[in-house]
Specification:
heterodimer; A: about 375 residues; alpha/beta; Rossmann fold; four-stranded parallel sheet; 11 strands; about 40% helix; globular; B: about 350 residues; alpha+beta; 60s Ribosomal Protein L30, Chain: A; Phosphoribosyl-aminoimidazole Synthetase, Chain A, domain 2; seven-stranded mixed sheet; five-stranded mixed sheet; 8 helices
Amino acid sequence: MSLAAISEGFRDRRLAAALTERIRENKAGPLRIMEVCGTHTMAIFRHGIRSLLPAEIELISGPGCPVCVTATGDIDLMIALAAKPGVTLATFGDLLRVPGSEGKSLAMARAAGARVEVVYSPADALDMARNTDGLVVFPAIGFETTIPVIAATVLEARSKNVRNFMLLVSHKVVPPALEVLLSDPELAIDGLLCPGHVSAIIGEQAYQPLVAQFHMPCVIAGFEPLDILSAVYMLTRQAGRGQARVENCYGRVVSKEGNPRAREIIYRVFKPCNAWWRGLGEIPGSGLELQEEFRDFDARTRFELPAVFVPEPQGCRCGEILTARIKPPQCPLFNTRCTPTHPVGPCMVSSEGTCAAYSKYGDL
Amino acid sequence: MTRRILLDHGSGGMASRQLIETVFLPRLNNPVLARFEDSAVLSAGAARIAFTTDSYVVDPIFFPGGDIGLLAVHGTVNDLAMQGARPLALSLSLILEEGFAMAELERLADSIGRAADNCRVPIVTGDTKVVPRGKADKIFINTSGIGLVPDHLVLGADLARPGDTVLLSGFLGDHGVTIMAARAGLSMQSAIQSDTAPLHTMVAAMLRAAPGGIRCLRDPTRGGAATVLAEIAASSGVRIEIDEDRLPVRPGVKTACELLGLDPLYLANEGKCIAIVEAGAAEILLTAMRETPEGRDARVIGTVTATSSEKHPARVILKTGIGGARIVGPLSGEPLPRIC
């Protein structure tokens, strides 16, 4: 059975209508449900899920796009590194057009002569390093989903003694950010649509503290329309009953314990540190840095790159969008000065960015 | 900061359009160019001549289903056909990199010759330049073409009207996925190949069947069906509704899209045509299309629903498979450079 055929089963129009009907019947009242995964944001838009839900259920997007939450200062570091003689920056394509300070991007740096290559995986970057004398730096962004693969690439680089491969680490882990968001009374979140891929690594168990501390309904969802509608249904059911617990609506991928082997490899290579999130600021223990024994692979150490705080572009309200304080059309730059072709902020650039989604799929 | 050309500017999407609008239109301003059609239509005495040009930089130069030479012939023939023109002749200009293998050039010349024969369009003039190694990548090709537009026939992206039917001549995304797979070194389980094909025979059949029923023809190359439909909606000031369940996408292309996070509506096609037609002529046009090899899989994919208004701006709306609705905007950003 092909992948496409499998996904068809999760896109059944009749089942979707039936689920929508049950969500309506639940009459859970006004509900603000936050999805904290960029892939969910895009799936919700791509399949037109909002247009199916009753008006009192509001789906709001959280800081779930790894590109968007990457601090402006880190983008500046990538641009600066790419311009260094002998350095090739091998990056996921999504980062190319993200503006750093003064509107500069890696795409512009490349047009001006910097060596920036798009790769589809960190393994491609490692291969590139093996086939060149220069230094290949891979910007390591992403959450729990991507980190194990990148950690495995570092282990591979060490075992094969590839000395010209390095990471510029900006990894982030999700739970500490959720804690910050849920602590904010202004946000008034009634339920969390928990990320599918991240949960495959961290497991159902990771959300128990949030349930305990914030009495927050949490439902883990996959990425097909019926996955998302089922999860919204479960959230409305919990809310209607005044419950708060972790439910797993993505059992075909996510287990209670998650993937301990993946977590083991993450923490063999990395260790927790504080991290700066665009929109959320500095969150203790929410980032990762390379363990001492892997410092040879750390571009920050090698080039003595300072962690600098760079303010966000003037007028850009990506920070408030990432924390669901405003929606894209409420930003004065949205679709005026900030467009997909001339993005001012990262939310307009990334394929998983909320503004990009609104701009591309938005108001009918 | 120095403003520079970015790869985005060659995407065929919004950035390309903005480049033309800001750099070229003000300097070359004339009403023919400003129409933004695939070909210019010029009057010469009683005759109406369609004139078009296109450059080909696809990487790799040989790919499943075709090569850069085939694309260069078909692409320009198709740009003429989209104005309803009967192609008369093509030019062929080559920019070659020093060191390019003669055998590959001969192979491409064979392919170009065969394609021109099959299209029954002679290549009547040409040019060759060679640049030092590293100053170009193997071979870049430019072709221009002229064609004759039938009397009284006017097609344009600004002519769509509420009630019109949207036809698509076949499967979406084959060329885009083929090039992407070839570049990423992905081996596809089911062999997808480029759909590169000349469309003028199919268009001629459509013109014979219902010449007055066709409003607009466009071939969705770079930027895909989404960008073409968005341009038609904007130029005509209408809302177009298309149905996801009716979009023809091969299983292999669908799988590649799921894996790589792509949307078939934005993938390049090199042998497909979107036609906006009067509803009353849709059936007869579909029959005519289906009788040609290029239009075998033609079908209705949507309708022009309304004139735009302040409350309901010009948009393309996709009815999703699960019964939802969303906008289909023009391509922004560069999914993959050098697709054609």
